[in-house]
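Figure 3 (text version): structure tokens given as input.
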């Protein structure tokens, strides 16, 4: 719970500062970049959380990774997190910032999971469906999971549409387990 409060407060501060300076779009892009890099690199996340690695070493490593890729404001913010001993919360701060920015812009996050990558036509139809569910703008994240078998699972906010083959199989399994049929004697 403590980590959620800390990350939310740091994210809110960065959002307010970036909005005040007119750099919210750049910082938002930076946060998406950082989120992608940290989430795809488990070693980097472990490094950030490690109490053994000194702060100055973490700063050097992050400078090497993000040099020239992020804005000065974002860079200074990361340095501030390190100086305050909060670098372990960087992934949560980034996620919180993205969610707060989306909320501020009335953008609903959505996720679509398919067995194979989407083509342009299917992507457009799913995006339209997500907009209908959200009642406004959405930002869709695409994931590929072969366990879906076919179809898709669309999650928009707290709503979900499951047209996947695996979902239909699970539904049939439940129906067979409940078997309301009572044979006549």
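Below: residues designed for each position.
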């Amino acid at each position: 719970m403590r980590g959620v409060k800390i990350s939310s407060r740091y994210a809110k501060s960065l959002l307010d500062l970036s909005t005040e300076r007119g750099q919210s779009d750049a910082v938002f892009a930076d946060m998406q970049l950082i989120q992608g890099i940290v989430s795809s690199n488990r070693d980097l996340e472990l490094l950030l959380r490690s109490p053994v690695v000194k702060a100055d070493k973490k700063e050097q490593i992050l400078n090497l990774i993000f040099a020239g890729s992020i804005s000065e404001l974002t860079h200074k913010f990361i340095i501030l997190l390190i100086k305050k001993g909060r670098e372990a919360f960087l992934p949560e701060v980034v996620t919180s910032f993205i969610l707060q920015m989306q909320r501020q812009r009335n953008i609903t996050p959505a996720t679509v999971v398919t067995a194979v990558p989407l083509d342009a036509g299917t992507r457009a139809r799913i995006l339209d469906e997500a907009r209908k569910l959200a009642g406004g703008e959405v930002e869709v994240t695409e994931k590929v999971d072969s366990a879906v078998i076919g179809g898709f699972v669309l999650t928009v906010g707290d709503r979900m549409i499951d047209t996947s083959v695996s979902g239909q199989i699970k539904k049939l399994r439940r129906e067979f387990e409940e078997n309301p049929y009572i044979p006549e004697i």
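The chain has two domains: 2-103, 107-178.
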